[in-house]
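Lecture 7, part B: from sequences to assemblies.

Below are the input chains for today's worked example.
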Amino acid sequence: EAGVTQFPSHSVIEKGQTVTLRCDPISGHDNLYWYRRVMGKEIKFLLHFVKESKQDESGMPNNRFLAERTGGTYSTLKVQPAELEDSGVYFCASSQAHRGDGQPQHFGDGTRLSIL
Amino acid sequence: AQSVTQLGSHVSVSEGALVLLRCNYSSSVPPYLFWYVQYPNQGLQLLLKYTTGATLVKGINGFEAEFKKSETSFHLTKPSAHMSDAAEYFCAVSASRSNYKLTFGKGTLLTVNP
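Predicted structure of the full complex, as structure tokens:
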């Protein structure tokens, strides 16, 4: 089966511009997560979708970040306007419906975002 | 709330030597524990996980980890390192049965010397 796919793999934009990252989860996975790793820091949770609904968005840095998951399939993460501190690697992960048995999250290769 | 501490941001071993990567966690509820590996320019790949039951869990590529509740540890080991094991390793925790988001440690970069 196809894994989690993220697009683009790299993006370089100038401060103040807008960027949209896309994630296609594994088919049939209800849960979709976004994480971010800023250089030198740990990977941090941004938000969690269950199907099309936002289950937890406690990790979103501020209102410049907007995540959507249309029809419970792919998801987009838009940064508008981008600031220098938004640079980092953005990871998407998906997992099957939780049954209380620790369904593992499957990660994409990430999008490396550089803000100049 | 959960937190993870990985001791040693960089570990270097010789090929054939024991690999030991340390992970300590903090969790207010019974945890689920995971080890992920990231090879250069790739995403995170699950090595192994602990949810319930047997405390010694075996994963892919000959790795294993032992959950020790009394020590709040989940150290990753491999008896004999291969050159192909060179990568960055992440320990992660999530709260069982409720909040499934992962909290990661800062990662340990493993170097394997010939």
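Note for the exam: The interface with chain B takes residues 3-4, 31, 33, 35, 41-45, 48, 56, 59, 91, 93, 95, 98, 100-110 of chain A (CB under 8 Å). Keep this in mind when comparing with the next example.
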